[in-house]
Amino acid sequence: MSGAAYGPVSAFAGLPTAxxxxxxxxxxxxxxxxxxxxxxxxARTAALGQAIRERFHLALPDGPRRECNGEVAVAGIGPGRWxxxxxxxxxxxxxxxRDSLENHAAVVDLSDAYLVLRLAGARLRGALxxxxxxxxxxxSFGVGDVAQTVAEHMSVVLWRLEDSAxxxxxxxxxxxxxxxxxxYRAIRDSAAEFGFVLEPA
Length: 201
Description:
Blueprint: E1 18-19, E2 25-29, E3 34-40, H1 45-56, E4 66-69, E5 72-78, E6 81-86, H2 90-101, E7 105-109, E8 114-120, H3 124-128, E9 146-151, E10 154-160, E11 170-176, H4 180-191, E12 196-199
Parallel strand pairs: 2-12
Antiparallel strand pairs: 1-12, 2-8, 3-6, 3-7, 4-5, 5-6, 8-11, 9-10, 10-11
């Protein structure tokens, strides 16, 4: 992960990288992401939305939705609150947001405090059904939908990505880095019957 606090060591270093037989669920750590929590200041939501639109050509979601444009994505996680991510942005991403949005929002850098795990595969929904108490069927949870929920009693932010070229469903989960080991083991164990593989970041 980026940042001096942890250096380049993966949050999952030393953990088993497979369980069961096959690859019904494939996990990938989203290494190097810049992650920022953005909260609109009082009566500044419209101005914040305009600033985000001008800088990233993205509209702030009004509700639990995620929008993506190139390397930057923004997910609505509550009234006046969003989670922004940037590919290979590291800590510099939040620092840049803080400088440009200081009149409109409070920005907290979560790049070292959080990690994002991408999950994909033909059997992924079956594995997640054991962990999260929400309906992830495509009729209920579409591409771009976001949920703050729990996985094995750990608070996570979950969003659905576009399906893979093979038509396999894909999700990402954001979780506090201190829960990385516990979440990984929970996912691996729930996916073992379908075959689980951790791919390099």
